[in-house]
Design goal:
Distance between the termini: 26 Å
Strand content: 15-25%
CATH topology: Ybab, Chain: A
CATH superfamily: Nucleoid-associated protein YbaB-like domain
CATH architecture: 2-Layer Sandwich
Order of helices and strands: HEEEH
Structural class: alpha+beta
């Protein structure tokens, strides 16, 4: 394969990767925490779409626990997005780690 063909193939792969990343950024991921008491919808772009808190989880005496449950759910949502991007990168590069 000549250099020009390699460059064209790389450009095609880059465009395809950008398209897939854009699709992933527009995908909504859903997670729940604390037995479903906290539900979060987050876009692949990390924009929060919705946070739902079960009314039974709201106790003024347990404010700190509710904050912890939200933090756990947010971390899980971000982890889900990270894993989706990692899977996309892996599938597009046949497992080779890319610097983007």
């Amino acid at each position: 394969m000549n250099m020009q063909a390699l460059m064209q193939q790389a450009q095609k792969m880059q465009k395809e990767m950008q398209k897939k990343q854009q699709e992933l950024e527009n995908t909504t991921f859903e997670v729940s925490s604390a037995g479903g008491a906290i539900k979060i919808k987050i876009k692949g772009s990390r924009q929060i779409e919705q946070i739902e808190i079960d009314k039974d989880a709201i106790d003024p005496e347990e404010k700190e626990m509710l904050e912890d449950m939200i933090k756990v759910a947010m971390n899980e949502a971000n982890k889900l997005v990270d894993e989706a991007f990692e899977q996309l990168n892996s599938s597009m590069t046949n497992g080779l780690r890319m610097p983007f």
